[in-house]
Amino acid sequence: MNDWQGNRVFWDETLKHIEHQVSEQEFVMWFQQIQYARSEEHTITVSVPSSFYRDQVKQRYLDIIEEKLHELSGRPVRIDFEIQRAELTSQPAAEHNPSGNSANSTNSDNRSRKNGKEKTAPSQPMRHAPGLSQDYTFEHFVIGDNNRFAANAAIAIANNPGTTYNPCLIYGGVGLGKTHLLQSIGNFAWQQDAEKRIVYVTAEDFTNEFIRSIQENRTHLFKNKYRNADTLLIDDIHFLQKKNETQEELFHTFNALFDAKKQMVFTSDRPVSEIRDITERLQNRFTRGLTVDLQPPQMETAVAILNKKAEKTGIVVPDDVINLICQKITTNVRDLEAALTRIIAYAELVNKEVTVAVAQRQLKDFFSSPLQNNITVDVIQRTVADYFNLSTNELKGKKRTRQVVFPRQIAMYIARDITEASMTDIGLEFGGRDHTTVMHACQRVESRMRTDPTLEDVLHNLNRRIKEEGSRA
Ligand code: ADP
Ligand code: MG
């Protein structure tokens, strides 16, 4: 075949150009693994590690790559992708010769044989690791400003477990995608190598399993399972508060895996520094690697997420319905999804199209009373107490230790901020205190906010929980 070596120069130049355009992290993640293969006059073929990679690169960068190539070479040049090795979901034969076993990897015109692999596979291969949900994959995860850093870190980890960011801690409020990202890492790593032991567990199950193993005298089996994992994914580690023995066990598990350079990823609904009653040495371990957070999505990302969900159901949901949901529901992705599901379910049930009128009627509860209306001082007290691992009685009580005074002041401040209650009302709800105490509390919180930048995050987090709690009430 006549190879247009000249195109190689344009390719290299294009890469250099892109390196300046994107962040270093992005470049390392998406471009360092692309290999130039060959070219024709109007086509450059490159090879990439997986179809996931190909799709991501196409979606994110194909336009700028092809535009730059056009500019440099003076003619339209398109990029064809081929996969460096058969993905492990297809044939075990890949073990033998990682680059040359499948027709896919040598055929330059992948575009015309889009589903070739699926066709040749003997039976539908399993796309998700045992014990993980097949819905929780990177393909199903929409990346926006609220989660970009976390998602990119997760992708990097899934590509190179145990090397770059170990451990990784993902934190964020309920329904923001922690479990989805965590399981995506597991699914992806498993797709790369199904021999690897990928262990996903919630901290709650980890705790219960550990207790049971003690009762039944088989802690060695428990240790075996977790200390021999290649990738250990533990969800919701805030659950470990006060679970001293489990913390101890996890500490040793951590050390064993860390020394063996095995990947660990944890999630938590709050920064580790705010998990109470957890040993300092375990806290240190959790934050030894990379910590990333998830925020609620902004409008554009929320719309993209719902479009994707709607697409999966195969039901046409008009743009204005999606927009309506996203305008009204700003708490988290889980609530967005729940609203969409409810509307679609209703439309299906009564054989109607999904229209704005249907949506409005279905979501009336959400819309007619703004979430804030359900929020009482009581809800605030419960949420704040729970967050700081106190009882509401302690929060309202007389104790003046540091442990309760500041949470109490925060609760008063929030009550003042988001309810209609007066300072006098609030004082009464806090064990009959005087309104000047409430005023003082608000001043304290405000002045502390000026000097402690993390406090704003805490308040943000609390406000979101309170809204969620209120919407359930
Ligand atoms: P968490 O573990 O943080 O409480 P989940 O991972 O369970 O949240 O996410 C709640 C729901 O929202 C799941 O159905 C998940 O698929 C969906 N979700 C969250 N973030 C995204 C996203 N960026 N793209 C697509 N779906 C998302
Ligand atoms: Mg979760």
Molecular structure report:
The chain has 473 residues and is an alpha/beta fold. The protein has four domains: 3-83, DnaA, N-terminal domain (GMP Synthetase, Chain A, domain 3), CATH 3.30.300.180; 94-293, Rossmann fold (3-Layer(aba) Sandwich), CATH 3.40.50.300; 299-368, Helicase, Ruva Protein, domain 3, CATH 1.10.8.60; 373-472, DnaA protein, C-terminal DNA-binding domain (Chromosomal Replication Initiator Protein Dnaa, Chain: A). 54% of the residues lie in helices and 9% in strands. The chain has 21 helices and eight strands. The chain has helices at residues 6-21, 24-30, 51-73, 116-120, 148-159, 178-192, 203-215, 219-227, 244-259, 280-286, 299-313, 319-328, 333-349, 356-362, 364-368, 377-387, 392-396, 402-418, 423-429, 435-451, 453-472; strands at 35-40, 43-48, 78-83, 168-171, 198-202, 231-235, 263-268, 290-293. The strands form two sheets. It has a five-stranded parallel beta sheet with strand order 5-6-7-4-8, sandwiched between helices. Strands 1-2-3 form a three-stranded mixed beta sheet. Helix 1 packs across helix 3, helix 11 runs parallel beside helix 13 (333-349) and helix 16 packs antiparallel against helix 18. Mean pLDDT is 85; it is low at 86-125 and 368-372. Bound molecules: adenosine-5'-diphosphate and magnesium ion. Residues 140-142, 147, 172, 174-180, 305, 333-334, 337 line the site of adenosine-5'-diphosphate (ADP).
